[in-house]
Amino acid sequence: MGLQRKTFLIISFLLLACVQAWATHIRAGEITAVRISQTSLKFRFTIVVYSDTGSPIQVADGGIINFGQGRTIGSLQGGNRQTIEDASVNFEERSIGNETAMTIIEIEHTFDGPGVYVVSYTEQNRNDGILNINGGSSKQVPFHIETVLRIDPGLDVNATPQLTIPPIDRGCIGARFTHNPGAYDPDGDSLAYRMVNLLQDRGVEVSGYVPLNDPSITTLREDGGSPAKFEIDPITGTFTWDAPMVAGEYNAAFIVEEWRFSEVTGKYELLGYVTRDMQILIEDCDNERPELEIPADTCIEAGAILEAMIRGTDPDNNKVLVEAFGGVFDLNPNAAQFTPEPSFRQQPAEHTFSWQTDISHVRRRPYEIQFKVSDQPTDPDAPSLTEFATWYVTVVAPAPTGLNSAIANARSIQLTWDDYIGRNYNPVMKIYRRVDSFDFDPENCNLGIPDGSGYELIDQVPINQTNYVDTNDVRPGVNYCYRIVAEFPLPKGGTSYASIETCALIPLDVPAITNISVEETDITNGEMFVKWTSPLEIDQVLFPPPFRYELIRYQGFTGTAGRTLVTSTTDTTYTDTGLNTQEIPYHYQVRFYDSGDNLIDSSSVASSVWLSALGLVQAVELKWEANVPWTNKVQEYPYHYIMRNRTDAAATDENNFVLIDSVKVTNSGFIYFDDGSFNNTPLFDDREYCYIVTTQGSYGNDLIPSPLINDSQKLCIQPNDNVAPEEPEIEIPDGAEEIDGLIVLDSPNCGNLENLGCAFSNFSNTLTWTADDIDGDIASYNIYFSPSGAEGTFTLVGNSRDASFTHTGLSSYKGCYRVSSVDRSNNESSLSAPICFDNCPNYELPNTFTPNGDGLNDTFRAFDRPNGKCPRFVKNIEFKVFNRWGGQEIYSYSTQSAVEPNYFIDWDGRDNSGKELPEGTYYYQAIVTFDVFNPKKETMEFKNWVKIVR
C-alpha cells in the first residue's frame, strides 16, 4: 500500500492547505423504539447522540424532538436542554472512547391510533468543516435523524431495530473504511440496509451533500483500482468506503429497514426503519487493519450450549481489542456470554463465545452476532483501525418425538405422537407424507423437510393435538411414510427439526398398476404397455379366484374424459394400441371381478409419463411428470435416464437413441438441461432432436418388485426455435351475431338457470377451438379473457393442453375470449379472433301484494320462484309508483344511489315519507338495465298496475 498511500498524501496536502482544523460537536445519532404496553400504543424512544468530548456545546441545547403526531419537545433556538431532560425518563451522558461522548435520551409517547409515524430529532448545528457538505461549510446545516414506525394491528406488536455498535471508528488515508451498526430486531423481523442522503429537517435533504464515492471526494480504492466504492451490504449491514483520499471529517447516513411477513396480504410488509447519520474521521496514518477469525455459520438445537473460539490478530503485531455485539447478549433469560472481558490484549487475542439456548430462542431468522476487532498502534496519536465480521446462528426447535403409525382400516392410517416440548409457544404441527421410506439426518441446518425428499404436506393440526387419522387418498399396496414438523407462528416464526420417520403398509387387496410405459409414439398408431399385479393380499375365501380384469383408459392425467373400456382379460399385462401418444398422456384403472363375476373393487389410477421441452439457444430443457400411486423419487433408485438421437458428431443419426445422461431426481427434480455436454458437442439450432425419459419408481412394498420402469413418449424439438405455431380458431355455434365488431352469442348455459337459485353467482363458460398442428409442435394453448372485449383488455386466465377450456368462478356469463397456441419452444401464436358470451337477462314483477305483517307476500317484490323467474344480470333499477297514470309520484327507488342495492325492489307499500298507503290500485313504472352486450336487451321498461291488499 506504500506507493498508493504516497499518492493519497500528496493529494491530501494540496486539498487541506486551505481547510481549517475542524471543530466538532455532533458526530452521529439514531432513534430506536420499543413498545412498552400491551393495552395502549405507548412506546419508549431512545435517542442516542454521539458528540465530541472536546466541544463546549451541550447535546440537546438547541434540539427538538418531533413525534409526528403534533407533539414536539424542545426548540431549535437553544437553551432548552433542561426541557428535554425534564420530559425524559432517562437522560445520561458518558464517554465511550475515541474522544467521543454518548448521550442517551429515553422518552415515552403514546400514539392515538394505528398509522405510520415519523419520529425525528433535529439540532442546530452540525460540525463545521465536514468536507462532503458544501465543501466544508457545514456549520449552519442542522443535524437531523428520523425513525419511521408503522403501527398496524394486523402486524402485531412491534419494536424498531436496535443498534449496538457505536459509530466511533476512525480511518486512514488510502485504507478501506468499514462500519457495522450491530443491528438486531427484538421481534425477529427481517432487516435490510441501504444508504440514504443526509437530512437537515423532516423531508428535507442536505443541499450540497456529496456521496463519498464522488470523484471530487475520492477516485481510487485501496487496491489501486477505480472507481472508489461507497456502499452498504443490504444483508449484513457492513458499510464500506474504499477508500478515503483526504484527511478530514465526513458524514454519511444509512437506514436499517425492518420487514415482516403478513399472513393477511401474503407478502413481506415494511414496518419502518431507523436512520443512522454518522461522522467518519480520516487521518494521515500508516497502519494495517487487524483481522478476525470466526466460526462458519451454524444451526443449533434449542436447549444445547453453543461454544466457539473468536480470534483477533494484527499484521503489525499491535495489541487488539475483540468485541462482540448483537441481540443475543440482551436476551432474558440465558443471554450469551463473551469471555474474557474485552480489553486490548497481545495478539492473537482469543475469546470464548458461549450461549445456553432454550426453546424461547427459536425463530426463523438466524441471530446475527457481530464481532469487531480494533488495533492499538504504538503511536498513541495514531487512529485505531477496525474490522467487522458477522456470525449467523439459527436456533432450531427440537424434533417432535414419539411418532407412530398404525392401519386404522383398509383406507386410513392412525398417527400418534408425544406432547411437544415447545407447545407453550403455540406452534402448529405439520404432517408430511410420501410413498416409500426416505432417510435423511435432521440435524445441523437440515431443518424441516428438505427439498427433493418427496414429502408432501397433507395437513396441520393444533399443537395440543397428538393424533391424526389420514384418510387422504390412501391407496392399497402403498407404503406410506410420515414425518411431522412443528412450525412456530410469526413474527418470530421458526421450524423444528423433522421427527423420525414412521411407515404403514396398506394391504394389497386390489390390483396395483405398475407400468404405463409408452412403446410407440404416434398421433394415431401410438402404443402403451400396461401392467398390474393381482390382488395379492385379498381374502380368497370371501373373493375366490380366478379374477377377471377390466382395463379402463382415460385421456389426460386425471378426470373421466375419453373413458374407454380397453379390454376384459384374466392376464395382468396389455399393450394398448391405436393411441395418440404424441399429443396427449393417458391414465388407466383396473376393475376386477371374482369367479362369480361379481365386481369387487378397482385399482388406483395411474398415468403415463409425459415429457415436455423448451428449445433454447443450442440447448433444450426437459421436464416430465406423471400422476401415479407409487413414487418416482426413490432413494434406492434415484436416477431417471435421458435418451436422445443425433448423438453422432454431425447430428445426422435420427433413428438410434443413446443414453446421454441421468438425473438424480431426489436432488434435481424432474428436469434436465441438455447443452451437448455429455459428448462436448453443442446442439445445432437447425436440427430437431428427439428425447425419451425413463423413470424409476416404487411402491415401497416388497410384494411389488422395484424399480418400476416406465418410458415417456418420444418428444422432438428444435433448439432456438423462434417460429410461432398456427393461430387457433374458436368454434362459433349457430346463433351468433356481430355487435360493435364483436361476435356475440347467448351463453349455451342459459338453459341451466332454471336449476339455479336467485343468489347463484358462480357461473362458467366453456369454449372449444381447432388448430392446424401438422407437425405436432403445439404443446398447449393460452386462454385470454376480457369482460368488455375492448382491445388491450384481455388477460391470461388459463392454459390447456386440450382444445377446450372451462372458465369458472365468474359473476356472470358476459365476457370475451381469445386463444393462442404455444409450441414446445414456448413460442406463442397471435391471438384468435375474439368470441363473446352474453348474459340472458330476466326480470318479472307481480300485480298484487299484502303488506299486513304476516310474513307472506309483505312487499312488492320481483319474482324469486321458481328459479326460471329470478332476476338475472340486473345492473340498475329505477322504480316509481303513481296514484294514477300520469298522476302524482308517491314513491320512488333507485339502485344507482343505494349503498346496498336491492334488485328485488321490496317496496313495503309506504310513500316517500314512510306513511302507509291505503288499500287500492296503484300504477308503477320500472326501468331495468341489464349487464349485456346486446343493446336490444339492455333495457326493459315495465308499466303496470299493482293492487295493495291489507
UniProtKB/TrEMBL annotation:
SUPFAM superfamilies: Fibronectin type III
Record carries keyword Signal: yes
Sorted UniProt keywords: Signal
InterPro entries: FN3_sf, Ig-like_fold
Residues of the signal peptide: 1-23
Protein name: Fibronectin type-III domain-containing protein
Source species of the chain: Roseivirga seohaensis
